[in-house]
Each structure stands twice: as structure tokens, then as C-alpha cells.
Amino acid sequence: MGHADSRRHAEGFAGGAYEEAGFPIPPAEQSIPATYASLFCTIPLADDVPPSHSILEGLCFLHNGDLLVCNTPMGRIYRVDMDRRSASLWCQLPDGLQPSAAKLHRDGRVFATCITPENGSLVVALSPEGEITERFAQTDGHLYDDMVFDRGGGFYLSDLSGSIARPTSGVWYVAPGSHQPTPVVTAMIMTNGIALTPDEGALWVTEYGTGLLHWIGLEDHGVASFAGSHITYRFCGLEGPDSACIDAGGNLYVALCGQGRFMAFDRNGIPVRQYLLPGRERGRMLKSTHPQVRPGTSELYLCSADLATGGASVFVAPALESAHRGFAWT
Fold first, then answer.
1. Burial 51-77 (b: 16+ CB within 10 A, else e)
2. Is the pLDDT of residue 17 over 80?
3. 151 phi and psi angles, rounded to 5 deg
4. What is the pLDDT of residues 110-151, one digit of tens each?
5. What is the dihedral of CA 33, 38, 41, 42, to 10 degrees?
6. Which residues are tagged catalytic?
7. Three-state secondary structure along the chain?
8. Whole-angstrom Cα distance, residue 194 to residue 185?
9. Are the CB atoms for 230 and 224 separated by under 8 Å?
10. In what order do the strands lie in the sheet with 110-115?
11. Residue 73 φ then ψ, to 5°
């Protein structure tokens, strides 16, 4: 199937053949309505970034409308001018820190989950100039990957540690005013994407190591319900479900890492749409990692990298509903 044909096909449903280099859409998901995203901008990574290190993560919109995006392996965060569709380096994190997520605090600081060179992790707070002002939840035993603020300013953390032999991952919570995490859910394998429902009564969590989507009910901030958790979806194929975000209607968007594809679920965890990146049928831009709905709009932004060529780009597509006004925007 040529690119033009595949684009026309994706306007309705996503079945059909793919070239050998691409990642096929699983048969059970070929009937889910699909939309091709459009290229928004490329991230001009420096010459010292090898193709294998071109991975993008952590889309985060700032109060002035600019977009931050992390180049995790190189420890860099780029800033995208949305009007000019151009990106420039915002900060180079010190001490070998590798940022995997960036979240805006109400006061204008940016919190970033970071892996350390010693296979530990922490969360850093960055000033508007990109300088570290505070450190949270430093540990040698976990690999914090993503985070989400609640309306009180506390935050939940996913944890990309663990394996089938050592299910040491889970979800952690740092209460407002605290610097130390407490466990919410444990005995998981490589949790990754994390989002709060609009009423903050539940967490959506992707478990990268098992290919599962979890709905975890909350009794209180940082406290899981005694009998309120569900596995709502089982993903198919390598690598696994990555970062996630919600919109104002409670729809959930999940990145499928290594597939050049994103899926959207309604508030009940039912898949209702998928987003395909141009070139995925030819094996391009498969390292799809993070979705984010732009505040004040119904525009869904998606980041991905092409580990074969070293390309790194941000894409845009119509979201199902407008952006959720979370902690940083209320």
C-alpha cells in the first residue's frame, strides 16, 4: 500500500496490508476508526545525537503557549515556539540526568522525572530559565518515568523498573509539601503512562512490561480503593503502552511505543479511535511515546522518533474533546 493510499484508508478504518518494514496493526484493532496525524515540526537535535538517542518524551505546554519536549538519552529539553513551529534547546540537565516527563506546576515551574546514571531516579523542579531549584523523591531502587499533579499540588509517579522475575514497579505518591514518595500500588512491571480522571476519583496507568491498561480507583489522594481496580485493556505486540493523557471529557490517549501509533479510549476504557503517524507503514517514526492535548484547544500533539535515521518530530491531529484544565491551569 502506498503512502497516499494508506492515508486515504486511515480516514475510515485501519486494516489492510503493510510493507514488511512497518509495524502491522493487530487484527483485533483494524476496525477501530483511524486518523493520520500531520507533521507539526521537527526537533533539530544536535550533531552529537546518534540515531539511537533521538528519542523524544514528555510533551508539556507552558503558560505562554510554548511546548516543551524532552530528548531523554541526551538529557536535553527543547522548547517549541508554536507560532513559528520551530524548536530550540531550552536546557541541558546536569549530572547525567535523563528527563522522561515534564509537567507544569501552577507557579510556572516545570517538574521533570529523571533517571540518573546510576540507574536511580528523582524528580527535579526547574525554574522558567531551566535551572534546578528543588529535588524530590530521590531513590536508587526505582526509575520514575511519568507523573501527574492532582488539584492539591501532590503528584503521582509511574516507575519503569521491574521485570517478570522481579515485579518491583508500581505507582507512587508525593503529597503536597513532602519530598518523599509513598506507595499507592506495588508488584507491577514497568509502569509508564499515568493520568488522573477529571474528577480525580481514579488513575489510568499503563503497565509497559505486561501490555495492560489499568483503572485504579482512589479513596483519597494517594490511597487506592480497597476494591476498585480494573484491567480495562490488553495491548498487542512489542514494545508496549507508553505515556498517556486525558481530555476534558475523560477520554484517554495512550502512546504505543515502537508502533508509530496512538490509541484513544472513552471514559469506560473502550477503544474508540487510533492515530497513525505518516511513514509508519514504511517503518518510519515508530518510536511513538507521548500524547498531549493543547490547553484551550481540541488539538492533540504527539511526539515520536525515527531510530533508523535519527529524526525526531512532533505531530498534530484532532482530539476527541477539548483539553482538560488540570492543576496547572485552574
1. eebbbbbbbbbbeeeebbbbbbebbbb
2. no
3. -70, -15
4. 999 999 988 899 999 999 999 999 999 999 889 999 999 999
5. 80
6. 242
7. CCHHHHHHHHCCCCCCCCCCCCCCCCHHHCCCCEEECEEEEECCCCCCCCHHHCCEEEEEECCCCCEEEEEHHHCEEEEEECCCCEEEEEEECCCCCEEEEEEECCCCCEEEEEECCCCCEEEEEECCCCCEEEEEEEECCCCEEEEEECCCCCEEEEECCCCCCCCCEEEEEECCCCCCCEEEEEEECCEEEEEECCCCCEEEEEECCCCEEEEEEEEECCEEEEEEEEEEEECCCCCEEEEEEEECCCCEEEEEECCCEEEEECCCCCEEEEEECCCHHHCCCCEEEEEEECCCCCEEEEEEEECCCCEEEEEEEECCCCECCCHHHC
8. 13
9. no
10. 98-104, 110-115, 121-126, 132-139
11. -60, -30
- 72/74 Cα distance (integer angstroms): 6
Model confidence, pTM: 0.94
Calculate the average pLDDT of the chain: 92
- Output the pLDDT for position 1: 34
Q: Which residues contact 242 (CB under 8 A, 6 or more apart)?
A: 192, 193, 206, 208, 254, 255, 256, 257, 288, 289, 290
Distance from C-alpha of 274 to C-alpha of 262, rounded to nearest angstrom = 6
The pLDDT of residue 12: 42
**Do residues 321 and 248 make contact, with C-beta atoms less than 8 angstroms apart?**
yes
| Amino acid (1-letter code) at residue 112 | A
Question: 67, 74, 16: which is closest to 295 by C-alpha?
Answer: 67
**Which tens digits make up the pLDDT trace of 54-102?**
999 999 999 999 999 999 999 999 999 999 999 999 999 999 999 999 9
